[in-house]
TrEMBL record:
<keyword id="KW-0234">DNA repair</keyword>
<dbReference type="InterPro" id="IPR022880">
    <property type="entry name" value="DNApol_IV"/>
</dbReference>
<feature type="binding site">
    <location>
        <position position="106"/>
    </location>
    <ligand>
        <name>Mg(2+)</name>
    </ligand>
</feature>
<comment type="function">
    <text>Poorly processive, error-prone DNA polymerase involved in untargeted mutagenesis. Copies undamaged DNA at stalled replication forks, which arise in vivo from mismatched or misaligned primer ends. These misaligned primers can be extended by PolIV. Exhibits no 3'-5' exonuclease (proofreading) activity. May be involved in translesional synthesis, in conjunction with the beta clamp from PolIII.</text>
</comment>
<keyword id="KW-0227">DNA damage</keyword>
<dbReference type="InterPro" id="IPR053848">
    <property type="entry name" value="IMS_HHH_1"/>
</dbReference>
<feature type="site" description="Substrate discrimination">
    <location>
        <position position="16"/>
    </location>
</feature>
<keyword id="KW-0808">Transferase</keyword>
<comment type="subunit">
    <text>Monomer.</text>
</comment>
<protein>
    <recommendedName>
        <fullName>DNA polymerase IV</fullName>
        <ecNumber>2.7.7.7</ecNumber>
    </recommendedName>
</protein>
<feature type="active site">
    <location>
        <position position="107"/>
    </location>
</feature>
<dbReference type="Pfam" id="PF00817">
    <property type="entry name" value="IMS"/>
</dbReference>
<dbReference type="InterPro" id="IPR001126">
    <property type="entry name" value="UmuC"/>
</dbReference>
<keyword id="KW-0238">DNA-binding</keyword>
<feature type="region of interest" description="Disordered">
    <location>
        <begin position="373"/>
        <end position="400"/>
    </location>
</feature>
<keyword id="KW-0548">Nucleotidyltransferase</keyword>
<feature type="binding site">
    <location>
        <position position="11"/>
    </location>
    <ligand>
        <name>Mg(2+)</name>
    </ligand>
</feature>
Length: 458
DNA sequence: TCTGGGGTCCTAGGACCC
DNA sequence: TCTGGGGTCCTAGGACCC
């Protein structure tokens, strides 16, 4: 841990609501709630006027409507406006020191060892933070921030929370443990509702209580990583450095429906729409992913996740959608679906070529004749008989093996097409459930492999 | 009228390899 | 004919953060 209060945490006050009040003078002094305004919306930010009535982040908007007075403004977020102000503030922080870790749109850590200060004494730091506060107000048209400076990230963050809104708290070196001791265990980063509840069963409510638990006990209850971290953080031992740059590890989009969805075809259409957005974001980010994720939340709020990893990285919306659809079709969903999500991870910078790359290659084009299979539109209606194999060789460019098609092989049974090119079609059998079935590659004109009957939906 | 959407990290078990 | 161990990858679920 550091010996000087050189880690700064800055947190913009009631950020979304404050931007709205800044931009619409009629909202100033009035309760403002920003968040989802639909029946299933939740509150992102409540202005301090709304907090008086108990409105809080993460509360359902319905509940906020019930407790806030008439005249409360309920607004949908305007992310573009927030991003703009965020950028202004982050630039001011980088002016203070180039060592900035942005945690979210309204929060960041700054390493003051990179700042141009004569020393890192409490008074010097305080003076500089007062100037920063004035700069933020001026540059953003009146937005305010709260700031904490300390010898570690944890104490800096706790400090920024101690005097909100618009306060500056510097935890002097040596004071860390006494500041921490009386606080709820929830003050420790990594302690959420579940950990707090388990700790309560041991009679632990405050950080002081937590200090009475041994290293061994914490590890046996919470696992190696979490247990050791709790033991150290309870003693204000926090050596975490700032993470100055980070590469995204996954891209995902999800949507909660206004009403639970029971129809498969609606879910399929939603998957296509969400996959489109995921693919576009991956393209913008310049990445290809090897693993496609599906997330489903049921009406009772339980979540199911399924994923599928291939050797061929993709960002093709169509491939993502077909894979996600396959994963969905492996799920029995009699209760309907509350939320649907699609994600991509396992990024590589470039789509690789190789054994499993099923994009058309020059070799394929010269060595193999074109053979076509029915496109999904040609698949039989639910309940009808299997497809007529004679259509496989119909010379229409659309009629080719498509990712996601159902197929049958006399030796391997039923499977689905993972990828296809002009020369080869790769099939995963008995997928996509766990454990994944075997993968086999066939020449496109292999008569043994045939399109199978499309699954029928209820 | 209960409970969003974007992420990260960890755990645990099985497969597989050495 | 008794029984290794470590490492990595994949999958599912869960906790947590803003």
């Amino acid at each position: 841990m550091r010996s000087d209060p050189s880690i700064l945490h800055v947190d913009l006050d009631a950020f979304f609501a404050s931007v709205e009040q800044r931009d619409k003078p009629s909202l100033r002094g009035r309760p403002v709630v920003v968040g989802g305004t639909g029946m299933r919306g939740v509150v992102s930010t409540a202005s301090y006027e709304a907090r008086v009535y108990g409105a809080r982040s993460a509360m359902s908007t319905a509940e906020a409507r019930a407790i806030c007075p008439a005249g409360t403004a309920f607004l949908s977020p305007r992310f573009e406006a927030y991003r703009k102000s965020s950028l202004v503030v982050m630039d001011l922080l980088r002016e203070l020191s180039p060592l900035v870790e942005q945690v979210s749109i309204d929060e960041a850590y700054v390493d003051l060892r990179g700042a141009d200060l004569e020393d890192l004494e409490v008074d010097t730091v305080r003076k500089r933070l007062e100037r920063l506060d004035a700069d933020i107000r001026e540059a953003t048209g009146g937005l305010t921030a709260s700031a904490g400076a300390a010898t570690s990230k944890m104490l800096a963050k706790i400090g920024s929370d101690l005097d909100k809104p618009n306060g500056i708290t510097i935890v002097a070196p040596g004071e860390e443990e006494s500041v921490l001791e009386p606080m709820s265990v929830r003050a420790i980063s990594g302690v959420g509702p579940a950990t707090a509840a388990r700790l309560r069963t041991f009679g632990v409510e405050t950080v002081g209580d937590l200090r009475r638990m041994t290293d061994t006990d914490l590890v046996s209850v919470f696992g190696e990583r979490h247990g050791r971290s709790l033991f150290a953080l309870a003693r204000a031992r926090d050596d975490r450095e700032l993470t100055l740059s980070r590469e995204a590890k996954s891209i995902s989009n999800e949507e909660t429906f206004e009403r639970d969805v029971h129809e498969r075809h609606v879910l399929h259409r939603e998957i296509e729409r969400i996959a489109e957005s995921v693919g576009a974001r991956a393209e913008k980010a310049g990445v290809f992913g090897r693993t496609v994720h599906l997330k489903v939340r049921l009406p009772d709020f339980t979540a199911l996740t399924r994923s599928f990893t291939t050797t061929s990285p993709t960002r093709d919306a169509d491939v993502i959608a077909r894979t996600a659809t396959r994963l969905l079709d492996g799920l029995d969903l009699p209760q309907g679906v509350r939320l649907l999500g699609v994600g991509l991870s396992g990024f590589v910078a470039h789509a690789q070529t190789g054994l499993f790359d099923l994009e058309t290659s020059a070799d394929d084009e010269t060595e193999y004749p074109e053979v076509f299979a029915p496109s999904p539109q040609d698949e039989p209606a639910p309940g009808s008989d299997a497809i007529d194999l004679s259509t496989r060789f119909s010379p229409s460019p659309e009629r080719r093996w498509r990712t996601g098609m159902d197929v049958h092989h006399p030796d391997h049974g039923n499977g689905w097409v993972w990828g296809s090119g002009r020369s080869r079609v790769t099939v995963r059998f008995e997928g996509p459930t766990t454990p994944p079935g075997p993968v086999h590659t066939f020449a496109v004109d292999d008569e043994a492999l045939s399109p199978a009957e499309a699954p029928s939906w209820t």
